[in-house]
């Protein structure tokens, strides 16, 4: 073992005796947390009804979106919401079948959109964003996967020339927070992305923005490292939990096990587990859709965000992926097929080459775990500290996964955290 490895924040506490630890949820947050726990000397069992990395972590854009500092709910967003909801091609969707169930969450979302509360969330998101990419570098260095972190930049593009003021105002905000960013148009924009449609008027270029090669590939790499370090994966549904002073009992579909520490990283499915241990959180499944054009990743040099259409195109190892929609639809409804058609239309408008014959297109829908204030829960049960939580990262699950793992392990071991977790308490609602 190298001196560099021992000096890492993930360095194993080799001589300490640690209890058996279970991580519920094998998405990217759960995988990062499991590896962080192993590095601290825990024997870790990973539990999920799906294969590792196959739920929400599978289909994201693979982009570490550290410039996204605004919560989903602000006064500006509330003013725009009716128009966005009524637009059949818009990014915000609420199926009528889910409206009644979503109503309490929506009321809390409106309350969290006040100027004061939005600023509170913004400060917390900024603190996570500042630590996100360095934490990913530490983790990928530890598992030998640094080549999967690619810092080749991001472009946020506008089609309407009359919205150059919007871009410059956004630029000013980025500059206030020392985020490297520049305004581009004309020949410079064409040089950066020659295949983009001519209808693109101008853009903001983030030269240091980072992405991963492919989110599922990264999850597979993390899972392989977890297995090589003695981790156990049980692919079963977690039926219930029973929290106690000395251990946490986990009831599976075909088994029952007790652990000295349990961390729930169950994404949009975390809510029902918390209810079993006396906690209620307003967690909603914000459904996202993607279409992936197999073998077409060479069409783009950067991740592209469309400011007006509100979707993202990303050149991944698995293909060119377009990701979008914020659909408050719960975890039970099937995908709504017209969402895929809208994404295809948006993609073709900005990147006409994807309409060529013979291109294979894959469609997918997943569930983002979203709380009304856009902040995750990174905390312990107030009465049973052996039960901890790391979920609710909305659009930033991949972005914040590695730093969440570090913060979670610091929390359960009563070590100093690199940032304040007060805004991410489980009982804040």
From TrEMBL:
Gene3D superfamilies: D-Amino Acid Oxidase, subunit A, domain 2, FAD/NAD(P)-binding domain. One of its GO terms (cellular component) is cytoplasm. This is FAD-binding oxidoreductase. Transmembrane segments: none annotated. The keyword Oxidoreductase applies. InterPro entries: FAD-dep_OxRdtase, FAD/NAD-bd_sf. Residues 21-408 form the FAD dependent oxidoreductase domain. It comes from the Bacteria. Keywords: Oxidoreductase. The lineage of its organism: Bacteria, Pseudomonadati, Pseudomonadota, Gammaproteobacteria, Oceanospirillales. GO terms for molecular function: oxidoreductase activity. The keyword Cytoplasm does not apply.
